[in-house]
Every structure is written in C-alpha cells, then in structure tokens.
Amino acid sequence: xxxxxxxxxxxxxxxxxxxxxxxxxxxxxxxxxxxxxxxxxxxxxxxxxxxxxxxxxxxxxxxxxxxxxxxxxxxxxxxxxxxxxxxxxxxxxxxxxxxxxxxxxxxxxxxxxxxxxxxxxxxxxxxxxxxxxxxxxxxxxxxxxxxxxxxxxxxxxxxxxxxxxxxxxxxxxxxxxxxxxxxxxxxxxxxxxxxxxxxxxxxxxxxxxxxxxxxxxxxxxxxxxxxxxxxxxxxxxxxxxxxxxxxxxxxxxxxxxxxx
Length: 260
Description:
The mean pLDDT is 93. The protein is 40% helix and 24% strand. It has a six-stranded mixed β-sheet, with helices on both faces. The chain has 260 residues and is α/β, with parallel strands linked by helices. It starts with a strand and ends with a helix. Helix 5 packs parallel to helix 6. It is built from nine helices and ten strands. A hairpin with a 2-residue loop joins strand 9 and strand 10.
C-alpha cells in the first residue's frame, strides 16, 4: 500500500474551480515532483494536502489512515486536525521564519511547544529540552548552518533562510515533507545551494512532494513526476517518461518553453 493516497480532490475559490478531481499515490521514501505553468493548481494542491486549505471534495490517507475527508473533517476537534496535519511538513517559497527568533530558536520553537503538551513535561523538562536542543543542532548542521545559530533571519541570505526553513520542517519528523517552489525567491547561485540540500535528503529515504519550476532538478531527484494543467493531472510517470519525450501535446509545449 502507498504511504500517501489522494483521491478525487476538488477545490474552488469562489466560482473558479482550481482543482478538478486530483488522484495520485506516493510510496514511502519516494520523491514526487509536481510541475506545470503558473495557475495550474500546483500550490493549491500542496496546500490542500497539508490542510492549509480545505478541499470541498476528496479523500486523503497516510499509511492507510484518513487524514482528510471532505464529509467529516469539519466535525473534527482542533486537536485531531492538528494531529493529522503533523503527518506533513511544508517549506514555503517565502521562508516564513520568525524574524524575532534566531536560527536555533526558529528550529526549536515548534518542538518545544509540542513537548509542553506532554503530561510529563514538568517532570522531564530538563531532559526534554536538552533532547530538543541536541536535535536542532543536528538538523542545523545537516543543512550547513552550524556557524549561524545565533543569527536572525535578517542577517541571513535567502538561501540560508530557506535552509533554516528546511531544518525547521524536518524537526517535526513529518511522514511527508512538502516544498512549495522552494527556490522561486532566490537567485541562481542561492538556488543551487538549496537544491543541493534537498537532493541530500533523498539519500535519507524521506518521502517528499516538490512543487518546482526547476526542470533539470525535478528530472534528477524524482521517482515520479506529475504535470498539472488547468486544475487536472495531464500526465504523470517516471522522469524518463515525462522528460524523455511524450505524446502529450500540452506537456511538450510546456517543456519546450524551458528549452528555448
């Protein structure tokens, strides 16, 4: 059974139907890239999967457990919704770091808040906070920023901020790590450093969904690629099937625009 199953996902904003029945699955430890022109529904799909947006119709499971069902989600408690959301981590294109916190604090904050919800937090406070700090240090080192622990976001380059955001997302140990055009706000040099970090995660068997306009990167790191157009999946397959020549005219037109 696939780790992630998305079935018949529909989402509209007003009278504009953005997702028109999305179906796909993703196996554990695999990387799925979602490509397509602006306005095709890629980011909305990601936001619905991570439940930052609520779809009007559809069903999502993680490891066989329902995490979204349009007929029942509205009836869930905030705690249950939050528990289901924790299956996913999301790295935004605009970093979304907390400007008042330094690098270490940005990575530890969510872990500390989660730890404080434990009934034994007061008894094990010192032990838990040390474990959180150690884990944050490990993750920050894994994205190459150990020397920036005390720096604030305004003191970092865009690429460094995005690497902090990746460490912060990993800190919550999501089953599926999602990226929403993680390099769209970066210049080419900084883009390469962020892509290198994401590529390194593939060696750790982390299940990932990457919405991206970096076609060469998508071809290199993906196990599967989805091409979206007009709110539907027009083509999907292995990187070779998507990038190696297709009989899908719209896909060829889209890919051709990157080769000119």
